[in-house]
Design a protein that fits this description.
alpha/beta; Rossmann fold; four-stranded mixed β-sheet; binds adenosine-5'-triphosphate; binds magnesium ion; binds zinc ion
Amino acid sequence: MLARTRSYTTFGVEALPIEVEVDASRGLPGLAIVGLPDQAIQEAKERVRAAILNSQYQLPGRRVIVNLAPADVKKEGAVFDLAIALGLLAVSEQVDPARLAGVLVLGELALDGRVRPVPGVLPIALACRGSRRPLLVCAGNAAEASAVSGLDVVPIATLQEAVEYLAGTRPITPRRRGARPRTSRPLSPVDFSDVNGQAQAIRALQVAVAGGHHALLIGPPGSGKTMLAQRIPTIQPEFTHEESLEASAIHSVAGLLGGRPLLDRRPFRAPHHTSSAIALIGGGPLPKPGEISLAHHGVLFLDELPEFHRDVLESLRQPLEEGSVRIARARRTLSFPARFMLVGAMNPCPCGHAMSARGRCRCPATKVQGYLGKVSGPLLDRIDVHIEVPAVPGAVLAAAPRGPASMELRAQVAQARRRQLKRLKRFAVSLNAHVRHRDLRAVCPMSADASRLLPAAMEELRFSARSYDKILRIARTIADLEDIEVIQPSHLAEAIQYRSIDRQLWA
Ligand SMILES: Nc1ncnc2c1ncn2[C@@H]1O[C@H](COP(=O)(O)OP(=O)(O)OP(=O)(O)O)[C@@H](O)[C@H]1O
Ligand SMILES: [Mg+2]
Ligand SMILES: [Zn+2]
């Protein structure tokens, strides 16, 4: 007697179909599972057995083998509990095998027979789009699964419900994707209008967000670096539906959607500087996405940048370049998307006052070099916009805050993004920060004055070839914020400013 059903596992954010085959034969009663790691097998057996008995069904009184195929795909065990339990009931005539073969099944079982949510349901649902088979999932995963169109989602709360659904004695109306998730913006408790002074730093952040440029905030303690960074989400453009699906799939695999169908705003991730390389970059024996992937289509904020472990900072270089992170595994390499805007914050020296006018810094030169050296040249080079955040004079701090309203800044950002999207479509990117070197001339037309100014400034300030490209990309964004097609000298001049503090400090 053989029963079959289909389940799924995830490898990175890729969903892989797994056939759950259950075979019963004569012999001493017993249960063997093949295709899972040893530890997982034992735990799955215990859960499935207990759930069946506690739901008042019987275990098959025969020798049963469960095969999860293909065997060479490394999988976590719990996702298959419900499929395995239903398979056992099918080979013992408590469930109709034909009905079971016609569904997709995902879910962990609790010992009492309740179905528990599992990670990775969204990418699995995306892979099942267009399937004629309904997807049976834990009720707690149903919102997430039904964010995907073209799929019937059957929410299941207990093993008994699943059995009765398959028997046709318990009708459950499948969920189909209804209206798109609401796009209204949740009210934010913070706003750039809370900030005293720092007009230039706010402007620079707006430029960075508009073009998707990485940014580094540098200034003395208490000048508002953390405060400014925390307000970035208030000026980011809305998620597109595709972006939201991509980002939500990563959060789903990490088990972080928590019952929400989709993320409703761009992520803002601010991991602590003690975070391990795996926590930040991703990995582990069953690879999970790290903070850089959880920040996909949003912001990764690294406060106190030089305090992060050196190897963690260095391993950011490849994903910053490629927009994804590769994790090597014995059998195959896996990759998680990781296209985020990096925002770093730091002091200019250990005491924090190196850039202040009155010579308050007493740090010995070697200490300053050691501190700054933790942020390596190649990493620094990948951060386009360097922003000085000077100390705010007491009188300014004492006055009522008069920063620009986030809503206005955001409207300008959205407008600049629309301009970019339209122009960049034929270059297969969507943000100025990602324009390739070979496309820069076409993307960045300059006025006669501007094309005279740039080489002269490069010579004078001794910028590298890489900086040249960055200055052009940033100038492009500044012109886009003004809704101007041809880059003017003023746009270049502002862009050059954002490439200047690093040369002053790291010289
Ligand atoms: N420009 C400002 N406008 C209004 N409040 C400010 C400003 N700068 C600092 N503050 C106040 O001071 C507090 C500390 O600022 P914040 O933590 O942002 O400084 P920081 O630059 O990150 O300092 P550190 O280098 O010590 O991390 C803020 O929570 C805020 O209340
Ligand atoms: Mg801070
Ligand atoms: Zn100092």
